[in-house]
UniProtKB/TrEMBL annotation:
A GO cellular-component term linked to this record: plasma membrane
Name by which UniProt lists this protein: NAD(P) transhydrogenase subunit beta
Transmembrane annotation, as ranges: 6-24, 36-55, 61-80, 92-111, 142-165, 185-205, 211-231, 238-258, 264-282
NADP transhydrogenase beta-like domain mapped to chain residues: 8-482
GO molecular function annotations of the record: NADP binding; proton-translocating NAD(P)+ transhydrogenase activity
Compartment annotation: Cell inner membrane
Function noted in UniProt: The transhydrogenation between NADH and NADP is coupled to respiration and ATP hydrolysis and functions as a proton pump across the membrane.
Bilayer topology annotation: Multi-pass membrane protein
Similarity comment text for this entry: Belongs to the PNT beta subunit family.
KW Nucleotide-binding (keyword) present: no
Major place of residence: membrane
InterPro entries assigned: DHS-like_NAD/FAD-binding_dom, NADH_DH_b, PNTB-like
Domain of life: Bacteria
Amino acid sequence: MGSSILSIIYLIGSVTFILGLKMLSKPDTARKGNLVAAAGMSLAILGTIFLYRVNDAPLHNYGWIFAGLAIGGVIGVLSAKKVKMTAMPEMVSMFNGMGGACAALISIVEFDHIIKLIKNLYAPVTDDHLVLQLLETTASRGIVVIILLSLIIGAVSCAGSIIAWGKLTGKVKDFSFGGQHFLNLGVLALLIGLSVWLTVIFPTAPATGSIIFYVIFLLALFYGVLFVLPIGGADMPVVISLLNSFTGVAAACGGFLYSNPVMLTGGILVGSAGTILTILMCKAMNRSLKNVLIGSFGGGATGAAAAGKEQGSYKEISLNDAAVVLAYANKVIIVPGYGLAVAQAQHACHELEKQLEDKGVEVKYAIHPVAGRMPGHMNVLLAEADVPYEKLLEMEDANAEFPTTDAVLILGANDVVNPAAKNDPASPIYGMPILEVENAKVVIVNKRSMKPGYAGIENDLFFQPKTSMLFGDAKKVLQDLLGAIKEV
C-alpha cells in the first residue's frame, strides 16, 4: 500500500516539475511556476522519508534527516532573502555547485556500499542469503558505470561552479597558460580511460578499484577547475548554463541508481533545459560548444588590439538635454545591462518608462541573451519591477526596430552593444551577435565612467557621432531624469 502511494506521489512530483518548468518560460508566470515545482519537490521529499522502504523496513535516523533538512532550509532561505540582484549569478553558481557535490557524495557512498558487499562475498558461502548476494553482483558493472558518471559529472560541476562563483565575485582571476587545452584534453582522456579500466576489473579487484575510484574523483575535481579557470569576460553566462546542465545530468544518474522516477525526471529536465540554453547562449556569443568543453572558451582573450586603436573623443550630454531628447521622441528603446543591476535601478527604470508613455512616447526594452552575468539576468530584474513581458524585445526583434527608433537609452550595458563585434576582426568579441543600437537616430549611454566592460575592451559605440555619454549611478540618473522630464 505504501509503495503504491509513494509511486503516485512521485508521479505528482514529476508532473509539477514539468508544469513548473513550462511556467518559468514567461516572467508573468515564473513565480507561480517556481512555487508549483517547489511544492512537488516537498511532497516527494516527505513521501520518500515516510513511505520509502529498504528491505521492507522504513527509514530510520529521522533526527539526522530532519536536522539536515532544517539546517539546509534555513541557510537556503536566508541566502535567498539577503542576496542582492547583482549577486544572483554568484548565488546560482554556488547552489549549483552544491548540487554537483551532492551527486558526487552519493556516488562515493554507494560505491563504498558495493565494495563492502563484494568483500563479504569472499567469505565462505554458507547460506542462501549470501548466494543471493552473489547473484546480485552480476549487475554491479552496470551500477558502477552509473556511479562513475554521477561522480565525474557531479565533481566537475561542483569544482567548476565554485571557480565560477569566485570569478563572479572577483576573488578568482582568469588564468591560462600555454598548452592548457592539451592538458585539459589529457585529463579528460585519463578520466575516461581510468573509468573504463575500473569498470572492466570490477568487482574482481575491489581494493584496486577503490584506489582508482578516488583517483577518478580527484581528477574530476581538477578538471572542473581547469575547465572554468581560463574563462572570462562576457562568456560566463554560457559557463553557468553548462554547469547547471551538468548538475542535472548527475542528478538523473542518481535517479537511475535508486530507481527513483521523480529524481530522474527532475535531473533530465534540468540537464536538457540547461543543455538547450547552453547551445542558445553559444549561438548568441558566436562560440562553439566544443571550445567550451575543452576549456578554451573565452580564455586568453585580451583587448590589446582594440586598446591600440585611435578612438577619438566622446561627448557628454546634460541631464536636461537627455530629458528633452527622450520626452520628444516617438519611440524609445531601453537597453538594460549589468550597471542597472548594480544600481538596483529596475524600479526607477519602470517609472521612467511609465512617465514617457504618459507623454505619448512608445517605450520598449531590448534584451540581449547574455546581458548581465547569467542567462535571463535582465528578464529577472525587469520582472521584479513589474515591467510588462510584451515590452521585452529579443535581440532579433530589437535589431529590426532600431532603424525606426528615435532614441536608445543604454543603462550599464557594454559588450552586448559594441560594434567591434561586427567591424573589428582583431577584437576578442568579433563575431558575437549584438544589439545594433547604432542604427537608432540618437544613442544615450549611462555609465559610471569610461571603464571597459566585463570583456575588458573599449566600446567603439561610445566614440560615434550620434552617441552621447550620461555619467552617473543608474538609479540616481533615472530618478533625476524623472524630475527633469516632468518639467519638459
